[in-house]
Specification:
Number of strands: 0
InterPro entries: TatA/B/E
Number of domains: 2
Pfam families: TatA_B_E (PF02416)
Shape: flat
Region (Disordered): 85-108
Membrane topology: Single-pass membrane protein
GO cellular component, one term: membrane
Order of helices and strands: HHH
Structural class: mainly alpha
Number of helices: 3
Largest sheet: none
Helix content: 55-70%
Strand content: under 5%
C-alpha cells in the first residue's frame, strides 16, 4: 500500500519524536493504533453488510472488484493476455537474420 523504505521510516520516527516529544510519543502511537483498528472494523462490517444486502446470488462477489483498476485488468486485460497467447501459438517461428518476412498487401 505504502512504499516506505527504511530511511523514510526512520525519518518519520525522528519527526514524530521531535513533534510529540519522547514522553507523549507512546500515548500518540497507542491512540493511532486504536483508531486504525476501529477503521478496519468499520470497513469489514461495511463489506459484510454489502454482501448480506446483495443476497446469495452474489456470494462470490469481491468488494475489491469495484476498484476501476482491478475491473479493467480483470475484464479487459485478461482477454488481451488470452488473445496474445493464442496468436503467438498460431504464428510461424521467426525467420533467421537477413531473410525478409512475406509481404501481405491486405495488412498494409
Amino acid at each position: 500500500m505504502f512504499d516506505v523504505g527504511l530511511g523514510e521510516a526512520l525519518l518519520l520516527v525522528v519527526l514524530a519524536l521531535v513533534i510529540f516529544g519522547p514522553d507523549q510519543l507512546p500515548k500518540v502511537a497507542s491512540q493511532a493504533g486504536r483508531a486504525l483498528r476501529q477503521l478496519r472494523t468499520m470497513a469489514n462490517s461495511a463489506k459484510e453488510d454489502l454482501r448480506d444486502g446483495l443476497g446469495p446470488e452474489f456470494a462470490d462477489f469481491d468488494v475489491a472488484d469495484l476498484s476501476p483498476r482491478r475491473f479493467v485488468r480483470k475484464h479487459l486485460l485478461d482477454d488481451l493476455d488470452d488473445f496474445d497467447q493464442e496468436s503467438a501459438m498460431a504464428e510461424e517461428p521467426l525467420l533467421p537474420f537477413g531473410e525478409r518476412p512475406p509481404y501481405d498487401p491486405e495488412a498494409t
